[in-house]
Design goal:
20% strand, 9 strands, globular, alpha/beta, Nucleotidyltransferase, domain 5
Length: 280
């Protein structure tokens, strides 16, 4: 049995296959080794009956995780997974590499990631070329779901939300200023808390203020991430991967066209392409 896993900070998607056929699947809390320690990872795994029941049957795991950006993080995560899946060979890569494989397979291309976090990389068909992006939810992640959550909370707390949106926000989340600040500054996994507000954007996508926040976020993402990469690799196809890119595709296309760029593919769930690639 082979397991293919793609994990952002909020959700990890698991597909278990036997002879090239999916025999089980589940979602768990996101497993990001930057924010989740080995003890917590094992707690997450032990809560899923599907994983507990198949732990000894899985012989190989391809795990693509947000936060697995250094050799130490990869080794630590692989060791933790190996202690749970005792008979499995575990291969860990970061989520950006997984996004690149899902979008490009073995072809070169520029891959923008817009999910719970954001990033971009040039993929030469085998490996990612190093860059200075991927600064995380505090210093970076422009255009991601946690970035938009941050902008929404900032607008709410500074009384800049239009009245009709403020009413909806209070009704949907029932949060006040002390609660919000407590969750962000004194509780663990503030980045996951921020991503939880993304659905508010899709639910109110026709509102002028929401569209303005989206446009500003994507413009900042293009200026910071995409345009420098396109200048360097100007002949390569441009791909996007992630929930934010897929669910806000129309707004993403507007910003791309503003910069005379054509998007070749947008993939919402990279786990499906990764499954096809690694089980074949």
């Amino acid at each position: 049995m082979v397991a293919v896993v793609y994990s952002g900070s909020r959700t990890a998607f698991w597909k278990l296959t036997q002879n090239g056929r999916v025999v089980a699947h589940c979602n768990t809390t996101g497993i990001n080794p930057t924010f989740v320690d080995p003890k917590m990872i094992l707690q997450i795994l032990n809560k899923k009956v599907v994983l507990v029941n198949n732990a000894e049957n899985i012989k190989k795991i391809y795990f693509f995780a947000a936060g697995a950006s250094s050799a130490d993080r990869k080794d630590e995560l692989a060791e933790t997974l190996s202690s749970f899946f005792r008979y499995s060979k575990v291969l860990v890569e970061n989520d950006l590499f997984g996004a690149a494989k899902a979008a490009c397979y073995d072809q070169p291309g520029i891959v923008g990631m817009l999910g719970s976090g954001s990033n971009v990389a040039y993929f030469d068909g085998k490996k990612l070329m190093s860059n200075n992006f991927g600064l995380g939810y505090i210093l970076g992640d422009e255009g991601s779901s946690n970035y938009f959550g941050k902008m929404l909370l900032k607008s709410f707390l500074s009384k800049q939300l239009p009245e009709e949106l403020e009413v909806k926000f209070i009704r949907n989340f029932n949060l006040d200023r002390p609660q919000i600040l407590e969750r962000i500054y004194n509780k663990p996994q503030a980045n996951v808390f921020l991503t939880s507000f993304f659905d508010f954007f899709t639910q109110n996508i026709k509102h002028e203020y929401i569209l303005k926040l989206i446009d500003e976020g994507f413009e900042r993402y293009f200026q910071t991430y995409i345009l420098p990469m396109v200048i360097k690799y100007h002949d390569e196809d441009l791909h996007f991967v992630g929930k934010v890119a897929a669910e806000l595709e129309d707004q993403l296309q507007v910003v791309a066209e503003r910069h005379n760029l054509k998007i070749k593919t947008i993939i919402k769930e990279p786990i499906l392409n990764l499954l096809k690639h690694y089980t074949n």
